[in-house]
Amino acid sequence: MDIRIIDAAAVTAAVKKLFMDCNYFIGSDIMCALETALHTESAPVAQSVLSQIIENDRIAAAEQIPLCQDTGMAVLFVEYGDKTAIDGCFEDAVQQGVREAYEEGYLRKSVVSDPVFDRVNTRDNTPAVIHTRIVPGDKIRITAGGKGFGSENMSAIKMLTPAYGEEGVKRFILDTVRAAGPNPCPPIVVGVGIGGTFERAAQLAKKATFRPIDTENPDPRYAAMERELLEEINQMGFGPAGLGGKTTALGVNIETFPTHIAGMPVAVNICCHAARHASTEI
User: Fold this and answer.
1) How many Cβ atoms sit within 10 Å of the Cβ of residue 105?
2) Where are the domains of the chain?
3) Residue 66 CB neighbour total at 10 angstroms
4) Residue 1's pLDDT is what?
5) 111 contact partners, CB below 8 Å, separation of at least 6
């Protein structure tokens, strides 16, 4: 079996570019949704907020400056081909890419070394959170994002039992968004993970926020649930920046995984409109 050797420096360069790009350039799916919302909003304040968000995103892209002052904690989903090998240490290469992006890209460094006691800034935004999955092939696909914590702090997980059913799942998702209110800088993207175990559901919810919002879950039942939840969330009236309007959320993405007969874990990961993520393949 032929193994493709990839230089660690190539991984570092790819990761560096991903984090600079995702902090400077909003995704076309988000921009399209913002422009659509601008035309459907009737409240002058909501229209004004959306216009400012769109202008902000265009200026960030043109001048290659951050979309938001919170450039996030680095999160990566890696699909690692089983016919590849790294000449060097993969983890070190990724962390170096994050380090260089946040240093050279003038991105805010927001990571502290200890969560409870010292809380000393690591001064380079590392360590990144890396989720790795081994897949067939001789390539490495990396999806990277900077997760801001104004929205991350509004996320939640609940270990539902099967008796809650579909209505219980929807109620928990809606209750989580309602409790978040204006805090996560709406309009938001709502990532939902259902199934697996406690930690798998949370991982799925995070991954769901990285999925383009102009796509649907391939299962028509979950696709219908995505549309229904989006409609109900936008009827809550929080609106852009929490100042009222029809656009509280731009999208709801659901990802699922098989689970235990006794469980139905549900995680909700909320992302603000600065939905920073980008992908590449090495």
Assistant:
1) 18
2) 4-24+67-147, 150-277
3) 20
4) 66
5) 73, 121, 122, 125, 126, 127
For the segment(s) 4-24+67-147, the CATH number from 3.30.110, 3.30.360, 1.10.238, 2.70.70 is 3.30.360
Cα–Cα distance, 235 to 216 (Å, whole number)? 21
How far is Cα 43 from Cα 245, in angstroms, rounded to an integer? Answer: 6
28 by Cβ neighbours in 10 Å (0-12 / 13-18 / 19+) ranks as exposed
> Hey, what's the torsion of the CAs at 113, 115, 118, 119, to 10 degrees?
70
Cis amide prior to 127 (ω within 30 degrees)? yes
pLDDT in tens, 154-185: 999 999 999 999 999 999 999 999 999 999 99
The DSSP secondary-structure symbol of 121 reads B
Structure tokens at 6: 């990839």
pLDDT of residue 149: 96
Provide the β-strand partners of residue 152.
none
One-character DSSP codes across 206-220:
HHHHHS-TT---SSH
- 125, burial (CB in 10 Å: exposed 0-12, middle 13-18, buried 19+): buried
Q: How far is CA 222 from CA 184, 205, 227, 264, 282, in A?
A: 24, 14, 9, 15, 32
Give pLDDT, residue 257.
Answer: 98
Helix axis angle for 90-104 and 8-24, nearest 10°, is: 40
